[in-house]
Recover the amino acids of this structure.
């Protein structure tokens, strides 16, 4: 059975990523949107020093805004033709679906964040080098894993529900607040914003890893009963 | 299933009438004692009177969310998945959100008088605000529709995820504040020496709001039960009525 779970996960993830590659919704809509958000932040704050200081937080805020779009998208493709119902009726292991969809979301978020960090370097003039890069990469991987698990979990819950566009942010924002706090602090350390050192960032990455582990486990245990109607 | 012949005169029972009476007496004392009979505080002045409402409502809000978590776990673990647990969870969350709103409102008024500001980014305040928003989300999930069992399954998962979420939020907010703002405005106010009548009034408040919570939750969950019953029996009632019409 365990083999079939990982095979299902790979199949679901491959399917989701293939859909995104072919439909180009992420590249043509979500990426430009998040880039636009970064430019809007610059308009709103209108000060190079302030931008450099808060760059870490802005990158993660733009990521969260885009997360809602990605999560809605990843479950819209499942509910259009009742695909999720078909999977359920076919007796597909929900843990496999959860892992597969989380992984596809993880990959999409990583692409998005790479673009946002490049935008931060270009638009907000942040510098990252040496040990800062190691911290930043670890932080991004842990934070993204947590966001992908939570996004899949709550996306599955609201999939097919009336008013899901407005419900999802309401449910998801409080839950991802720890990710915003910890990832922002770790990123600021990696950027050495406001005089913080790279070493100060590692405890935050630890919390991010705990967050990802907790919601990964919570998702594996509860996803089945969430999508089962 | 002969609910159609039952006439409803209310959802009160001798027990809820007793709670209600106790709540009126205790809260009546809090009103009179808190506003007139207790002295003002040496440091806080008249602002301390807000505490007779603020502290009890905060306690009850936390208690309500614990009740919601426990009732959701009972629904999930129980073999029969008794829908009563789900109703208690929902009723308790509703009352908890109400009390938490009162806590935040009274707390920010108190803070404006005492600290000179409506809000500080203290870990306890921030976590409380997150708790409030989280349970508003929980109530929104309960309102998604579907059968009573769908509602119970969804909302119990959300309630248990909230139990995971709250410690994480609290921990990261504590870490955020302790690393970023070493001098916080507020220290826990547990070390305040209290006058006898002040302590009595506060305890009256805690007791009064506790029985008020019990009163509200028992009424609310009974109203929910009636609503569920109405949904399931409405069709039966309509069919029976049409048959009677046809026969007469």
């Amino acid at each position: 059975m365990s083999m079939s779970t990982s095979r299902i996960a790979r199949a679901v993830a491959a399917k989701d990523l293939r859909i995104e590659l072919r439909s180009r919704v992420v590249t043509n809509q979500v990426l430009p949107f998040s880039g636009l958000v970064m430019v809007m932040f610059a308009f709103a704050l209108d000060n190079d020093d302030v931008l450099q200081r808060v760059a870490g937080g802005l990158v993660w805020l733009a990521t969260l805004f885009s997360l809602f779009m990605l999560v809605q998208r990843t479950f819209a493709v499942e509910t259009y033709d009742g695909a999720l119902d078909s999977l359920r009726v076919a007796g597909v292991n929900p843990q496999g679906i959860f892992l597969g969809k989380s992984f596809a979301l993880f990959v999409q978020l990583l692409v998005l964040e790479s673009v946002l960090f490049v935008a931060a370097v270009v638009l907000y003039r942040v510098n990252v080098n040496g040990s800062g890069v190691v911290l930043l990469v670890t932080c991004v991987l842990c934070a993204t894993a947590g966001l992908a698990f939570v996004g899949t979990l709550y996306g599955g819950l609201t999939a097919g529900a009336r008013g899901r566009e407005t419900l999802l942010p309401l449910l998801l924002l409080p839950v991802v607040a720890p990710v915003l706090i910890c990832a922002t602090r770790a990123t600021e350390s990696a950027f050495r914003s406001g005089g913080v050192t790279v070493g100060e960032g590692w405890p935050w990455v630890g919390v991010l890893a705990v967050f990802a582990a907790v919601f990964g486990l919570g998702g594996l245990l509860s996803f089945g009963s969430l999508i089962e109607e | 299933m002969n609910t159609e012949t039952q006439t409803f005169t209310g959802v009160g029972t001798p027990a809820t009438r007793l709670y209600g009476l106790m709540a009126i007496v205790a809260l009546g004392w809090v009103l009179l004692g808190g506003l007139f009979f207790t002295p003002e505080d040496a440091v806080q002045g008249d602002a301390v009177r807000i505490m007779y409402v603020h502290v009890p409502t905060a306690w009850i809000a936390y208690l309500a969310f614990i009740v919601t978590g426990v009732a959701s776990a009972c629904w999930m673990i129980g073999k029969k998945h008794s829908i009563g647990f789900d109703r208690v969870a929902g009723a308790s969350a509703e009352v908890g959100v109400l009390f938490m709103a009162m806590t935040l409102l009274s707390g920010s008024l108190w803070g404006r008088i005492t600290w000179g500001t409506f809000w500080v980014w203290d870990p306890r305040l921030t976590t409380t605000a997150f708790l409030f928003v989280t349970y508003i989300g929980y109530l929104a999930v309960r309102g998604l529709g579907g059968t009573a069992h769908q509602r119970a399954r969804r909302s119990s998962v959300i309630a248990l995820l909230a139990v995971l979420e709250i410690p994480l939020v609290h921990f990261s907010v504590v870490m955020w504040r302790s690393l970023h703002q070493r001098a916080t405005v507020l220290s826990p106010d547990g070390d305040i020496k209290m006058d006898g009548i002040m302590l009595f009034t506060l305890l009256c408040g805690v007791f009064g709001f506790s029985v008020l919570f019990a009163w509200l939750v028992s009424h609310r969950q009974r109203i929910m039960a009636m609503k569920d019953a109405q949904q399931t029996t409405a069709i039966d009632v309509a069919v029976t009525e049409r048959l009677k019409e046809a026969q007469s």
